[in-house]
Design goal:
By secondary structure, the protein is mostly helical. Helices cover 60% and strands 6% of the residues. It has helices at residues 11-20, 37-46, 64-72, 85-108, 121-137, 145-152, 156-167, 171-189, 194-200, 206-217, 221-232, and strands spanning 26-29, 55-59, 77-80. The longest helix is centred in the middle third of the chain and has 24 residues, at 85-108.
């Protein structure tokens, strides 16, 4: 009653649903006709378009080997039958809550890197490429989703959906946060003045940079540097 649910009779139908809808979590039986749950999980976790989706596998097999097989395919949780609906509901809530917590920490904390958003190998590769693209071009004030999509060789729509799903941010918001995080790193190196840093990371002025930094992280650039240096002692 708390979720919008899309139902599939087998793995192929599930993949078709993933192509049409933005899905936050997938629950699959291991034993299915055609493509079984293990193969489905592997496909989902190795496809950049869906690799961020948490997967819960349900199975009647209660051996350690079957559990290992599920986890090796990238499953985030493995529940043995019979199970209580309450147990499944708690797993769903925990997975979604933990993902949201990771996203919030990335958005709110200057020193937390983009890589923390990755929960699969495919995600980590995507985030590495994404971060490299943004850092390389962030000095350009006009660098936005369209230019990022070109660099990543992705359609604007696909890039938007992936970034929104993995970070809760729009691509332009993510670019802004990445700029601020790079600036935070440069400030701690003590090699640049604020106006130099704001220019290096693509802000039109030091005043604009300071205002955006304050709004994003709840502290001014100078307050952040002072806090971090105090913590280092």
């Amino acid at each position: 009653k708390n979720y919008v649910v899309h139902k599939a009779a087998d793995g192929l139908q599930a993949l078709a649903i993933l192509q049409k809808h933005a899905v936050d979590l997938m629950i699959s039986d291991v034993m299915m006709p055609g493509m079984d749950g293990l193969e489905l999980c592997s496909v989902v976790k190795n496809d950049m378009h869906s690799s961020h989706i948490p997967v819960i596998l349900l199975t009647a097999k209660n051996t350690l080997q079957s559990r290992i097989e599920g986890l090796e395919q990238g499953a985030d949780a493995y529940i043995e039958k019979p199970f209580s609906p309450g147990h499944l509901e708690v797993q769903i809530k925990n997975l979604l809550f933990n993902r949201a917590k990771v996203m919030a920490r990335f958005v709110d904390t200057p020193e937390v890197g983009m890589g923390t958003l990755g929960h699969s190998n495919a995600d980590k590769k995507f985030l590495d490429a994404l971060n490299d693209a943004i850092v390389t071009h962030m000095h350009n004030v006009d660098f936005d989703i369209d230019r990022l999509a070109d660099v990543m060789n992705m359609s604007r729509r696909t890039l938007f959906r992936k970034i929104k799903a993995i970070s809760s941010l729009t691509p332009n918001e993510l670019i802004s946060v990445a700029r601020l995080k790079k600036a935070a790193d440069l400030m701690l190196q003590d090699d640049y003045r604020i106006y130099e840093i704001s220019d290096l990371v693509g802000f039109s002025s030091a005043k604009v940079f300071s205002r955006v930094f304050q709004k994003q992280f709840g502290q001014s650039p100078s307050e952040y540097v002072k806090k971090m240096r105090t913590q280092s002692f």
